[in-house]
């Protein structure tokens, strides 16, 4: 299998689901729905939903009931976090994925509310009878618990707080690692675990996949830091080197660009080793791990 | 039973649960948890949790498993909505419940994140195995669905959007009603329905209680509008008459203060009529309906 084809095919499926299930911009409140869709359909790579789908496939060949809703709920969370992070009182970014940020188009109030609505909708989708048909209720509750835990105060939101508190401070490496473990790592961990749980993973499988997720989460963040230094405006869809300008400490700042790349590669190697007990069904996860660090740099 | 004693007793129970289960301010991220607690423990009347508890009691004498987590998740949603509503880009309020608003104390970024974390925590609590022990998973999923539906894009958040869009516009009565139906009504509806569902209500009981909730939701909003005109700074915990200053249309603007009071009373009478098939177990709900419109005016 070719990972680019795989990613492209899954991305299309995810986009199709999001477009079909997200509230239409011609139903009220229309501006809210338009604003939600503006960011949701802005052409993300859909890494988190694809990780969830690939994790499910690694566990079970049959498509688990509700997997698309579960996978896409992660993209709703990711999208809301980008909208809120871009706000003037947070990172104050004007561009995202090559387009003006949500608040630049719809104003701050609507951007805050669009984020709130996307966040809430993630839990709506995971609990909707039509979208989750056939999924055991006990499993469904567990999926919702994973999503809440990974995205909340001790997960992604917590990471955002650690990040804000570290700005313009001379932080050490453990502090940087703690930021990323939460800010990016916990939702990626949730994505892989949710896919696995939806597919009925054994405890052992879930442990292995959790280890995999933690390693690629770190690799993903390091690669992102490197890209922020080395990428062009076209590649990034926003201005490069914004981290350094804001006085944010990054992996390249600690290890240099080459050192950071090496570190990301080590994480990927470790991640793949975690999948030793899985057969070819885990090939997408293996290739995804490499793809994540190789993207655009 | 005396409704004031009842409310006081339930309020204490809710406060105790919130205080015990909300993350401690000495666990990281400490500032986030402090900020969440600042607004959560600011002395609200806990109307939504109490409605959920009273609705459960009206259906079943035994305490349903998980009812406190379910009830308090509604207060988490309510509190997050207040924090976000008070932000400079939204209502720009400096005081809430007699204290400086969250962003005044912790800054805008932290206030946005505290809101996000409280919202997420509502779904965490409703899906946590320890807090929901003994609740059937199928019922749990249904409760989560009610919470998401009532607080999201076609619920409370949608209402906030309708409200923003109506500011400084000469809106008609149906538009005003649509704002309130969503902004306050949908979460109150969710509160009553969630209490009823947790207690195993029949379809008929759930229908009756839903009607009750819709009527008191409207009464509640009218009373709030009246209070905004007639209340003092001490009673309100914030400056009075802010609605008129902002050019917000309210029920007193359409009906006058006395006309609005009469309308609220009619709603309460209708709400109580919905409970005709319930025995004395629904007395707290009946008295609550009157109490809601009588508060401080």
Automatic annotation (TrEMBL), chains A, B:
GO terms for molecular function: (2E,6E)-farnesyl diphosphate synthase activity; dimethylallyltranstransferase activity; geranylgeranyl diphosphate synthase activity; metal ion binding. SUPFAM superfamilies: Terpenoid synthases. Its cofactor is Mg(2+). One of its GO terms (cellular component) is cytoplasm. It comes from the Bacteria. Coiled coil: none annotated. Pfam families: polyprenyl_synt. Keywords: Isoprene biosynthesis, Magnesium, Metal-binding, Transferase. Its EC number is 2.5.1.-, 2.5.1.1, 2.5.1.10, 2.5.1.29. GO terms for biological process: terpenoid biosynthetic process. InterPro entries: Isoprenoid_synthase_dom_sf, Polyprenyl_synt, Polyprenyl_synt_CS, Prenyl_diphosphate_synthase. The keyword Magnesium applies. Belongs to the FPP/GGPP synthase family. This is Geranylgeranyl pyrophosphate synthase, chloroplastic. It comes from Nitrospira moscoviensis. The gene is GGPS.
